[in-house]
Write a structure and sequence with these properties.
The protein is α+β, with helices and mostly antiparallel strands and 176 residues long. The chain has eight helices and six strands, in the order ββαααααβββαβαα. Helix 3 packs antiparallel against helix 4. The longest helix is centred in the last third of the chain and has 16 residues.
Length: 176
């Protein structure tokens, strides 16, 4: 544990078990800057613990406190949940493919990336066995509801981006 003393805006401070600590948004941002794989840490924090807006507001209140925080926030600003989703977003934008949304609600789930009108579900990231199983249940429900799920590996996204974009474009066109 590292202690750091400084003046903070009241919005960035809370009391936990009688101890004044930073609120989750600032804590996530400061930790992401301090750990070796800050981008992955921030991805997980945004997925599970703290909304992007809270992290962003903490950053705005403390602009200039970190050199790398802005880079991490820019990467997370598209609201993608992981580096892989950000790669898909860049791939789609670069290929001029529009009409998709991130985090589309579907029953008790969120569709990572969806072409809602065409009912095409995009790539999913699995961090553990429970998420993998939950994604399979979600995929089955999507298929029953008439969606066309597509799955790509990181190696597909990183190594064959033009092929991936072509497959997405063809699937969306066929579904339209």
């Amino acid at each position: 544990m590292r202690f750091r003393r400084r003046d903070l805006p009241g919005e960035d401070v809370t009391v936990l078990r009688g101890v004044r600590v930073t609120r989750p948004g600032l804590t996530a941002l400061e930790t992401a800057v301090a750990v070796p794989d800050g981008s992955a840490f921030l991805d997980r924090a945004l997925q599970r613990h703290v909304p992007f807006d809270e992290v962003y507001r903490a950053y705005c209140r403390s602009v200039g406190s970190w050199h790398s925080a802005g880079t991490l926030l820019i990467a997370a600003a598209d609201r993608a949940d992981s580096a892989a989703e950000r790669l898909v977003v860049r791939l789609l934008r670069g290929a001029g493919i529009g009409g998709w949304v991130l985090g589309h609600p579907f029953g008790p789930w969120r569709i990572d990336l969806a072409f809602v009108r065409e009912k095409v579900d995009g790539w999913a990231w699995h961090v553990d066995a429970d998420r993998f199983r939950a994604d399979r249940r979600k995929q089955n429900a999507l298929v029953r509801a008439g969606w066309d799920p597509l799955r790509f590996t990181w190696h597909d996204l990183d190594g064959r981006p033009h092929d991936v974009a072509g497959e997405i474009r063809a699937t969306v066109a066929a579904a339209a």
